[in-house]
């Protein structure tokens, strides 16, 4: 239940095309729904502007299918993150309208058109091909939340000329998400080139001393470029959520 749907429902009651009893029935599970294995937060779209997202990792196939079925009864779009290909295949059979991105490990079931609600575009800059899974998670999430997304891959600091050749593209974005592993230097470079918010995402890509993304995380937290904020290691979803809020705030 989002603001647009709730407004339409109240207008129907006001206009007489929907009686109060039917409206109450539709609103019965508005705060949350007890689905047994999960407490589904149907109110989240009203509070936060985006619906609840299912974190697929650690859930069984049966749990995922049950939660998705309950959420689709509200006619909203459903996004699942961190979903393995093994679990995705039976879910695609159960929900033929869904789309699975194997690189991002996301499943998106769009039951209604996704409305563009951002002022400008979110640019996702990926340092290397090995960082693509995290960058793609951010891209799928940002699009599902109603943003125009542009993706720029394999422009890391090992060949900085590749990034500098896209300077105009960097400056056209409303928000930039920068995904990088190894030493995590790319967000500092981008942050020094633009006047828009930069959200840095460290990845767990790198050799031993990268410590599973900790080196990149610390490098980004210590960025000498102003305006760079940092999310958790491999958290493309969190970066897209933050970028969505920034993009909508600038739209107002």
In short:
Helix content is 40%, strand content 17%. With 252 residues, it is α/β, with parallel strands linked by helices.
Biggest sheet strand order reads: 8-7-9-10-11
SSE pattern, N- to C-terminal: HHEEHEHEHEEEHEHHEHEHEH
The pLDDT mean sits at 87
**For the CA atoms, what is the radius of gyration?**
20 Å
CATH class bucket of the largest domain? Alpha Beta
DSSP, total strands? 11
Fraction in helix: 40-55%
**Architecture of the largest domain, CATH level 2?**
3-Layer(aba) Sandwich
Distance between the termini: 22 Å
**Could you give a short account of the major beta sheet?**
5 strands, parallel
Question: Which runs of at least 5 residues are low in confidence (pLDDT < 50)?
Answer: none
Q: In the CATH scheme, what's the topology name of the largest domain?
A: Rossmann fold
Strand % is 15-25%
Number of helices: 11
Judged by helices, strands and strand pairing, the structural class is: alpha/beta
| Quaternary organisation of the protein chains | single chain
* Shape label: globular
Instruction: Return the domain count.
Output: 2
């Amino acid at each position: 239940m989002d603001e647009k749907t709730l407004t339409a429902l109240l207008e129907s009651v006001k206009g007489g095309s929907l009686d109060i009893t039917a409206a109450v029935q539709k609103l019965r599970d508005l705060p949350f729904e007890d689905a047994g294995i999960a407490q589904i937060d149907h109110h989240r779209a009203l509070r936060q502007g985006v619906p609840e997202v299912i974190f697929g990792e650690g859930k069984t196939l049966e749990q995922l299918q049950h939660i998705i079925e309950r959420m689709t009864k509200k006619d909203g779009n459903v996004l699942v993150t961190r979903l393995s290909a093994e679990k995705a295949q039976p879910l695609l059979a159960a929900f033929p309208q869904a789309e699975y991105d194997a690189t991002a490990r996301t499943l998106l079931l769009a039951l209604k058109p996704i409305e563009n609600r951002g002022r400008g575009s979110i640019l996702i800059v990926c340092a290397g091909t090995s960082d693509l899974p995290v960058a793609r998670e951010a891209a799928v999430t940002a699009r599902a939340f109603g943003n125009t997304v542009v993706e720029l891959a394999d422009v890391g600091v090992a060949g900085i000329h590749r990034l500098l050749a896209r300077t105009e593209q960097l400056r056209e974005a409303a928000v930039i998400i920068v995904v990088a592993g190894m030493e995590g230097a790319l967000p500092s470079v981008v942050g020094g080139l633009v006047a828009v918010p930069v959200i840095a995402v460290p990845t767990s890509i790198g050799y031993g001393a990268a410590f599973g993304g900790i080196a990149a995380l610390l490098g980004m937290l210590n960025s000498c470029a102003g305006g760079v904020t940092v999310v958790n290691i491999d958290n493309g979803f969190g970066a897209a959520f933050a970028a969505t809020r920034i993009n909508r705030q600038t739209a107002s």
